[in-house]
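Exercise 4. Each item below gives a protein and its sequence. For each, produce the structure-token representation.

Item: Radical SAM protein (Pseudothermotoga hypogea DSM 11164 = NBRC 106472).
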Amino acid sequence: MKLRSSAGTLYKLGLRQGPVEQLKTAYLMLDGVCQFNCNYCTHALTVAKLPFLSRVLWPEIEDFPAFLEKLSQSDFERVCIQVVSYREFEKDLLELVEKLKILKKAISVSVRTTDLKFVRQLFSLGIDRIGIAIDVVNRELFRKYRGGSLDRLKRFIEKLATLYPCGVTTHLMVGLGETDRELFETMVWLRDINVETALFAFTPLRGTPLENHPRPPIERYRKIQLARFLIYRGLEEYVEFEGDSIKAFKELPGGFEKAFLTSGCPSCTRPYYNENPLGPLYNVHSEEMLNSLEVKG
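Answer:
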């Protein structure tokens, strides 16, 4: 088992020197040779292997008992395990969850699977949320960039949402050629089946097939964030379209700025996952930072 931790998690635990962010979630990664080949991922099968996932550096944990002890004494509210789909990762993941549950902290697992029996095992061990990424909301682009059937994956997510109400999260990526309307309709569907949406801005990463694909304009990403904020409050009728693009909003409720915070599982902060610390910040990872920064881009 090769277990890594995000650099920010290690900084906060005092196990590595670096800037301490206001993290509520500790991030771990089970690493190995991925069997999939997503065109936007640094861990894709045909991409040079680097200790990164998206923009985040993930040093290997050298002393797990010491790490676990520090984690148990910390004020982290949640542990999130990112899982690379290497051969037989299931065994390692179940073993890791078993070790982490003694912390009495909420546990999220982000994993690529359609194995219902395996998911049942994870929940039986005590995880409270599972993340099954959609990433690409357009059917043809899903097949092209990620591989497989979007409709089949959505049926699996819907099944999980029935079995584990409010226990499922998915990831949607903005900027891969999809329309605003496709993102909007997908988020409405996810809201209706009680699945949480975590938004990401596409980030071109060196060495991947999409390294020269442009980032989404920050203005467009802000509109999608606001649409998500409204949808999950039952206010999707406030979103105005021109063709398949979001044009404007009829009105915005008080506190709408929170739409720009990192979205996902409860307590998710995920700092600088898809942006440079120098900005612009696509996902703002703390309310203090939201209050102190100009986030509109």
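Check: The domain at 2-292 is CATH 3.20.20.70 (TIM Barrel).
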